Amino acid sequence: MNLTTSKILVQGMMEPMGSRYVPLMMNYGTPIAAGISPGHRGETIGGIPVFDMVEQAIESLGAIDTSVILVQPYLVLDAALEAMAAGIRQLVIVTESVPPLDMVRLTRKAEATGTIVIGSSSPGIIVPGELLLGIHPAEFYRPGSIGLISRSGTLIYEVALTLTQAGLGQSIAISIGGDRILGSSYDYWLNYLQQDLRTEAIVLVGEIGGDSEEQAAKHITQAIDKPVIAYIAGRTAPRRQVMGHSSAVITTQITDFDADLGTFDRKIAAMKQAKIPVADRPSQIPDLLKKALAHKKPTLQA
Amino acid sequence: MDLLEYQAKALFREMGIPVLPSQRIDHCRDLKGLKIPYPVVLKSQVYTGGRGKAGGVKFVANTIDAIAAAQAIFNLPIMGQYPEVLLAEAKYDAQQELYLAVLLDRTTRCPLLLGSIAGGSETDLTMKQLQQVQVDQEFSSFYARRLALKMNLSGELIQSVSAIVEKMYRLFVSKDLDLIEINPLGVSRSGDVMALDGKVTVNDEALGRHPDLNGLQGQLPTRSPASLRSILNFIPLEGNIGVLCNGAGLTMATLDLLHKAGGKPAGFVNLGREGRYGLSPEQLQIQIEQGLELLKQAKGVKVILVNLLSSIVSASDIASAIASYLQRQPYNHRAPQIIVRLVGNEFASAQEMLMAIEVPTLDHLDDAIAKVVSLSKSKLA
Fold first, then answer.
1. Which end of chain B is more exposed for a tag (fewer CB within 10 A), N or C?
2. Residue of B nearest to A23 (CA)
3. CATH number of B96-219
4. Please, where are the H alpha helices in B41-185?
5. What is the pTM (predicted TM-score) of this model?
């Protein structure tokens, strides 16, 4: 992912989410070059031109790096295919509840074309002070050196706010999304943060369900040497209860397969095995971070 | 959304997966007009498994026996669930029983074909012999044959079973299913195959584009589907603190914090994420009021904690939704005490507005949790 992009597109510009969230991004200084909404060509929103199709925007403005997708769930697949066909290689899908089999097709095409996909059901990416690709509440964030990754929406806001209040700014915050099938994994973003020069430590905000935290713990042992702190939500969540979005269905429908998959205990055990400190509440994260950073500094100088 | 066996079998029939002649029984008297020749099997139509072992499946040889058996099954709860309908089905002599399923694997983002040579009710045996094939590219029939071979099938069964798997896969994709399972797939002495029991789970998110399946929801009176469309669900727990929150992660974190501080949640209402298409700020305010009403009416709620974070709805707007809800309460009415946790630029004015109507409003989550837990334990609250 290249976040020093200059040309950003919004698909679903004139639709409800577009009109709500595009001003957030614009106010944050995100360089939105164009919006797409079929039937609205020639209109402008805050000076940003709107086109009927992605290819028209590119014809008129030149290559576009990134598209933020805000169309309704059943149109996400088509919007993403349209963007990829037009050569866009970075997609941020904010829309929630995209049907899983649509995401399977979407991610297959993304792999074949080398496209990076964030989401679906993701508030996107924020580089505090610089760029908002999505819907993070900017006022909770401050520039700094902590990289944040999560599957959650509002919970990553909570953790960002906690860090900000403790004087720990953030280098970048990414939510990979809450839907069941996602375009990119924790692993991809852990690698990104590992290479990101501004990031000194990483906070992984996980939750029960699925096995992405377990995978991430394994990956951290193998490939990440920056300090990582984890927090996992859902210790006391009722078992086999849908909490609101699909990724938190506590096991897959077939409990017979692996009754422990995605439980809190499993995730904590995976973190412990990878020697990743786990905060038992969001407000403990700053302390653990400060400890980890203090511990790390001498070895850096050595 | 889960389908009942008879609904799943209707989909199988449509797709050309062989099923036995059967008839839906709504009342015992329907058995008098039974069109299937005896002997027949009567099956309780409930969502849970293990109904055979629980006595929810009975073989009958004539109308008198059938009516008696049907009465017994209608009155037999299985895991607490009474059937609304029964399925009367022809009897089948299976020489062998196989297990087949198609589902979506979240980690690899690929559909999985599953099969076991040991189908039937002995789950342990089925699991021991379970084979899987990942559909990692565009589906073609060979994936189904690959599964058949892994299951150790040979001869004509390779073609007949893989043809069933292929039809299951087509159904899985065309109807946006989370799961399709045939257990058992009966194999007769002559090598014919028959789907004897079936389970289908439709993906809730995709339900809106399948009007035929969506229509089945009205026919499922024993369970309300966990659809994202009916987002305002009160999920009951056993304590006395009601939680109104937005987003699954934050809701779970809030419940964890309450437990940790010694509190006991009575349940929660999760207003959902902000990426929900079509949810406007005005609707969020309406949902806050609806959520509070749900919590007020819920059993055992003594204190309510409101914990909401939003990119576009300010603390003041949330506060005014709460204030307007409280102002509409009848005078002298003892609603549960509400504690509000809000953040952001407009916190001060939100706090002022709510403090004026005696609603404690805090910005630190830990402080709000401590306040709620102490109120939940006090005698006066």
1. C
2. B312
3. 3.30.470.20
4. 51-54, 63-74, 123-128, 141-150, 156-174
5. 0.90
